[in-house]
Write a structure and sequence with these properties.
The chain is mainly alpha-helical. Helices cover 64% and strands 4% of the residues.
């Protein structure tokens, strides 16, 4: 962790109430960072693996599967090596925490419950009108 210096590469994580600081940058082992060619190939490998995971997550968005979870997993892989991915994940974590706090507000919860109930009533009325007008007929049994 930090030894007291606040030089470049350190960002305070005070936004979530902690005073801990985490370094930005590569988390590759020191023997890899010491050799430029090895470190560059390490970064390429991390990028390719992260890209494969993110692409799999994007494919899962319209298909069955945990698309967003896989995308964030790919971002976490990138964040082990790239500062921009670390900053994106920190921003995302902050926004999710803020949204969670807003969602737990009793006024917001009450509003969401009311809106959901109104939406369900509207859908039920529309389905009822459709069934009353056309009856229940399975699509494969419709004869034109």
């Amino acid at each position: 962790m930090n030894t007291g210096s606040d030089g470049p590469g350190w960002i305070a994580m005070a936004d979530d109430g902690e005073n801990s600081e985490r370094p930005l940058g590569s988390r590759a082992p020191e023997f890899i960072k010491a050799r430029r060619a090895l470190h560059l190939s390490w970064q390429v490998g991390v990028f390719v693996v992260g890209l494969a995971v993110v692409v799999a997550g994007v494919i899962m968005l319209p298909l069955p599967g945990p698309g967003w979870l896989v995308i964030f997993g790919g971002m976490a892989i990138w964040a082990t090596e790239f500062v921009w991915a670390q900053l994106v994940l920190r921003w995302t974590k902050r926004k999710v925490t803020e949204a969670t706090q807003r969602a737990l507000d009793p006024k917001v919860r009450r509003r969401n419950i009311i809106l959901t109930t109104v939406g369900l009533v509207i859908v039920a009325v529309l389905v009822g009108v459709y069934v009353w007008k056309f009856g229940i007929e399975m699509p494969w049994n419709i004869k034109e």
